[in-house]
Design a protein that fits this description.
By secondary structure, this protein is α+β, with helices and mostly antiparallel strands. The protein is built from seven helices and 21 strands.
């Protein structure tokens, strides 16, 4: 049996509660605050309790229904959602035996692989039990002319990965000049030269395309010959981003405006009326129903932006995060180290990486 939460407001609350108990209404979770009082009763006694309080001229309202009573009330008011939930569960069970998605990875373009899968008779909509993974792997390898393909079935998803044939490396002519050049701009940190002539040393700044090790070997003071440069040069890469600070910080404070709403959540999608506040703080109370349905009772409190003075120490961590995120977004290399410089006028973040030129 479900329960109902009832709110009433007025004087002589103790007398009203005693009158309800005398009439056989079982009260629980009674909370009194000033002129207001909230309590819980069995759903079968709810109407009698409300009628008694209204007869005594109290302001009364039903806060919310709990348990099976809430489920039944929700089903009556939102029958379409309940029907949709039941149908969705049935459809999900039926669809689990079919291929609903194909996940493609590997060396070839996804559209080319998907077309080949379709030609092999294993596209979306086919029964997963009718798809022979080993047979499909062999057909794809021949159709796409790859070294091999890997096919896995998991639930309603077909995972296909392809590996292209590798070409053999052509022999290197060690007597033909070849320079080692910078692939990216940065600061040289290490030079290892096995064959050729180093042009840079640690600490030098280089730009993309600069020669690092020249494919030249000096025979004597007047003569040299071309060689195939062998070695590697490490170049430190960096991106620097600064977020300024003007001595103020914007915070959001609550107002007296509130909005209450009830939502149904099914398979990750939320159904209900959206709050119209531009900025707000939200508090949710979630009820878990059958078939994976969630009923969310939300309270929205409208907030407004307020600017206040602040010290750099109060916002340093947030400014670090923003500066680092921007620097990482600009960096086209893997970040190996992150440095920060915190000053009174802002935070500077430097993201460091490494380029090995061979």
């Amino acid at each position: 049996m479900g329960k109902v939460r009832i709110f009433f407001e007025g004087l002589n609350q103790a007398s009203a509660l005693s009158g309800l108990s005398a009439r056989g209404v079982r009260l629980s979770d009674v909370v009194r605050k000033g002129k207001s009082c909230v309590f819980t009763v069995e759903s079968a006694s709810a109407n009698a309790a409300v009628a008694y309080l209204r007869e005594k001229c109290y302001n009364v309202r039903v806060e919310r229904k709990l348990g099976l009573s809430a489920a039944a009330d929700f089903a009556r008011r939102r029958a379409a959602i309940v029907v949709f939930a039941v149908l969705a569960v049935v459809l999900l069970y039926v669809a689990s035996g079919f291929c609903l998605r194909i996940d493609v990875s590997g060396d070839l373009p996804a559209d080319k692989v998907l077309a080949a899968v379709q030609q092999c008779g294993a596209g979306v909509g086919r029964r997963m039990s009718d798809i022979d993974a080993d047979e499909l792997e062999n057909k794809l390898a021949v159709n796409l002319q790859v070294a091999y393909a890997v096919v896995n079935k998991r639930g309603s998803t077909l995972y296909v990965s392809t590996v292209a044939s590798r070409q053999t490396v052509s022999p290197v002519d060690m007597h033909k000049r070849r320079d080692i050049v910078a692939e990216r701009g940065g600061v040289v940190t290490k030079v290892v030269c096995l064959v050729g002539t180093p042009v840079v040393r640690a600490g030098d700044k280089v730009t993309k395309g600069d020669t690092l090790i020249a494919g030249v070997r000096q025979v004597d003071e007047q003569n040299s010959r071309d060689v195939y440069a062998v070695g590697h040069v490490e170049v430190q890469l960096s991106v620097t981003e600064k977020v300024a600070f003007d001595g103020t910080v914007t915070v959001y404070e609550d107002t007296d405006e509130t909005y209450e709403a009830c939502f149904a959540v099914l398979f990750g999608r939320q159904f209900g009326k959206v709050c119209q506040f531009e900025n707000y703080r939200r508090t949710d109370v979630v009820q878990y129903m059958p078939c994976g349905v969630q009923i969310v009772h939300s309270t929205f409190v409208r907030t407004v932006a307020v600017t206040r003075t602040a010290d750099i120490s109060q916002v340093a961590e947030e400014l670090k995060r923003r500066a680092e995120n921007t620097a990482r977004a600009k960096a086209d290399f893997v970040a190996l180290e992150v440095l920060y410089d915190v000053q009174s006028d802002g935070v500077t973040c430097t993201v460091l990486g490494l380029s090995v030129n061979e």
